[in-house]
Write a structure and sequence with these properties.
CATH architecture of the domain at 71-224: Orthogonal Bundle
Transmembrane segments: 12-32, 75-98, 110-130, 142-162, 183-205, 263-284
Subcellular location: Cell membrane
Membrane topology: Multi-pass membrane protein
Distance between the termini: 48 Å
Largest sheet: none
Organism: Paenibacillus mucilaginosus 3016
Family: Belongs to the binding-protein-dependent transport system permease family.
């Protein structure tokens, strides 16, 4: 009987370890496979059979990605729009969330309904384009910032989190003479770090991966081009020119072997575009579980 009781934890932990290893393999395999393809010779990749290790090592795919002189400038444009838009969006969205979370605010329900309606209804792409034009945001850096400052979904997430905070925190601040804005900055905002970190990741990933707004509103200004837009143009051009390059190199097996293909370019682009997010994510992950309700008041 004692032996059976001792064996149960062993089987349980062994089963958990096997399941976790399988989940890790399933999760990491697509990324590792893409990484292997990005370092494999393009023409060899067409044969297939690339799994976790390149068959013919090369950095030619990355050389093709960084061959354009504007790629580094586009990278810093993407970094600037991501950082500025994330900071402003977090501050303004959390301010609105705090406002409509207050029970004494008589218009909180109508305002909430109006904001939520924007999640389900919009005027369409053409009216949106003319709106951006009338606001004089075409070919302007602020076209990346202003339209996405407020997110209805993120506002609801932050408001829900604020409503879980002890009401006594706000009451104590008001007794000490703090106004609404001071209460928001000194009490509510620091306690919302976990949800703000989560929302920040949502906003940052969306801003970093965005290229369609560049295509619509800033494609004629090369100095406003973003990294994702430049990579999209590179992928499109490689797909168009690949067939003609294959014909031209048909008589030269060595040149054909070194040819960059859309599949290898796509893998390299995926790694280049996702690497900054992978670097930032571990610094935000710790806030996803642990709260920071400092100086809470017992009710």
């Amino acid at each position: 009987m004692r032996t059976r009781i001792q064996m149960e934890p062993l089987f349980f932990h062994t089963f958990n370890a096997v399941v976790m290893i399988l989940m890790a393999v399933v999760t990491l395999y697509p990324f590792l496979n893409t990484l292997a393809i990005s370092f494999n010779a393009g023409n060899d990749t067409i044969r297939g059979g690339i799994y976790l290790w390149p068959r013919i090592w090369t950095v030619q795919n990355y050389e093709a990605v960084f061959a354009g002189g504007n790629i580094f400038h586009a990278f810093w444009v993407s970094v600037a729009r991501t950082v500025i838009a994330t900071v402003l969006s977090l501050f303004l969205t959390s301010m609105i969330a705090y406002t409509i979370s207050r029970k004494e605010y008589v218009f909180r329900k109508p305002v909430t309904i109006i904001i939520v309606l924007t999640m389900y209804f919009n005027a369409g792409l053409i009216p949106y384009y003319f709106l951006i034009k009338d606001l004089h945001l075409l070919n302007h850096f602020m076209v990346y910032i202003i339209p996405g400052l407020i997110s209805a979904f993120n506002m609801i997430v932050i408001r829900t989190y604020i409503q879980t905070l002890p009401e006594g925190l706000v009451e104590s601040a008001k007794i000490d003479g703090a106004g609404d804005f001071r209460t928001f900055l000194s009490i509510i905002l620091p306690l919302c770090q976990p949800v703000l970190a989560t929302v920040a990741l949502f906003v940052a990933v969306g801003q970093w991966n965005s290229w369609f707004d560049t295509f619509l509103f800033a494609s004629s200004k090369q100095n406003l081009s973003t990294l994702q837009y430049e990579l999209m143009k590179l992928l499109s051009s490689s797909m168009i020119s690949n067939s003609s390059a294959a014909v031209a190199n048909g008589a030269d097996p060595g040149a054909a072997r070194n040819m960059v293909t859309p599949m290898s370019i796509r893998a390299s682009i995926t790694i280049v575009a996702s690497l900054p997010i992978l670097i930032v994510y571990p610094f935000l992950q710790k806030y996803f579980v642990h709260g920071m309700q400092m100086g809470s008041v017992k009710e």
